[in-house]
Amino acid sequence: MELQSDMEIKEACGVFGIFNPNGEDAASSIYYGLCSLQHRGQESCGIAVCDTKGPKGNMNTHKGMGLVSEVFKDDILEKLHGNLGIGHVRYSTTGAATLSNAQPLVLNYIKGTLALAHNGNLVNTQDLRCELEQTGAIFHTTTDSEVIAYCIARERVRTHNVEEAILHTAKKIRGAYGLVIASPRKLIGVRDPLGLKPLCLGKRDSSYIIASESCALSAIGAEFIRDIRPGEILTITADGITSNCQLCQETHAHCIFEYIYFARLDSTLDGVNIYDARIRAGAALAAAYPADADLVTGVPDSGIPAAKGYSEASGIPFALAFYKNSYVGRTFIKPTQKERESSVRLKLNVLEPVVRDKRIILVDDSIVRGTTIANLIRMLKKAGAKSVHVRVSSPPFLYPCYFGTDIPSNKQLIASSHTANEICAMIGADSLGYMNPRDLQSMVGKLPLCKACFDSHYPMDITGHTADNKQ
């Protein structure tokens, strides 16, 4: 599903924050951290920094549409002075893909300045937004992230400190969130009580870092300390770290799609190594849906580890069947079906000597509408493959997600209106096997999961919230 030519699943957002008490500028570290989180969002990005020893309210911000390397050139980074800062890469799940919705959001209010970056999605945004508008709030974006920022600003007026304001806000908001927040003297990380979205803490020398994934810590030479606990509010200042766990609870529901697709292979989330999880997914597929075949291959890049796991468990050799062109650019936004199919051929080309006269098992991480996998099957058979048996390392998508995974409404999900046999015929496969929902737990051990997009068992009340709200 790495190919997004038929507008399939999109990434979540990524957040990164760092506090350098020694006074070193934070912008370059944030830049490298965001580059390592680029897989989580490619629409827009931004960095906000401040000098903790300078005057309060000196937040310096730059945002833009596009990739981190496109938005932040050397001349831009050189102007972003400050030893505390946060950054964000965005894929829109609420709010349009416009510069006004790019993050971090920076508020100047009666108590000072606040910058916020958010990964996730709230389910009570409309109620909170209406409440704020009734008391005079004027919104400049269409994101739920601005609702969170405004709630914190409102609470801060009547609290002793920003942490107390964040706690009061966290009691109001419902949904999935990993937040990094910068006030003039503090870096704060906040994770939703269910742990739907990931957030971790790292350290490099005397500096502390908060990031969506551990791969961002590795990118700047930082040591992974621990995952931020679900419901925890973690505050970093010149005096060290403090933790508030008032909202921590025993019930958790970690998003399964972090382990199937979102997170980078070299990350570890909540004690689960992503590469190992995907290898186990492939092994479970091999046990549930064996096939007589000559080789196993995966759809680059996200299907490769599960294909390797399938190969190891089945004893069928693994091989790369596609060459991926990494220099095409972002070609997935195509207005017509013909152009979408062309973009698949631009990004991937079949290695004909590998597949000719072979019975192939093709592993992918999901099927949403089925367009991309159908194109790939046609390409393999045109290159001489005798048969193509598709194996999918996730169950059929049957229900929309409301927590920041851009899974479309039911009418756009092929599995909601077609059986596996019908889908198999539609995509031109010789056989089709989906991950059994019971096997999902084998990927992550005892970690409690949210699997609502597969079984409709949402971990919280989503009454009044529809997938149509997601843009």
Structure notes:
- The structure is a single chain.
- The protein is an alpha+beta fold.
- Helices cover 28% and strands 25% of the residues.
- A seven-stranded antiparallel sheet has the order 3-2-4-1-10-9-11. A six-stranded antiparallel sheet has the order 5-6-7-8-12-13, with helices on one face.
- The chain is elongated, with a radius of gyration of 22 Å.
Give the helix tally: 16
> How many distinct beta strands?
23
Unreliable runs, pLDDT <50, ≥5 residues?
Answer: 1-8, 330-337, 466-471
N-to-C terminal Cα separation, in Å?
20 Å
Approximately what portion of the residues adopt beta-strand conformation?
15-25%
Mean pLDDT across residues:
89
Quickly give the structural class.
alpha+beta
**Helical content class:** 25-40%
State Rg: 22 Å
- Going across the major beta sheet, what is the strand order? 3-2-4-1-10-9-11
The biggest sheet, with number of strands, parallel, antiparallel or mixed sense and barrel status, is: 7 strands, antiparallel
Overall spatial form:
elongated
Nutshell version of this structure?
The protein has helices spanning 27-36, 68-71, 74-77, 125-134, 144-156, 162-172, 214-219, 256-262, 274-288, 304-314, 337-347, 352-355, 371-382, 420-427, 441-444, 452-455; strands spanning 14-19, 44-50, 60-65, 84-90, 105-109, 112-122, 175-183, 186-191, 200-204, 207-211, 223-227, 233-237, 240-244, 254-255, 268-269, 272-273, 295-298, 322-324, 348-350, 359-364, 387-392, 431-434, 449-450. With 471 residues, the protein is of the alpha+beta class.
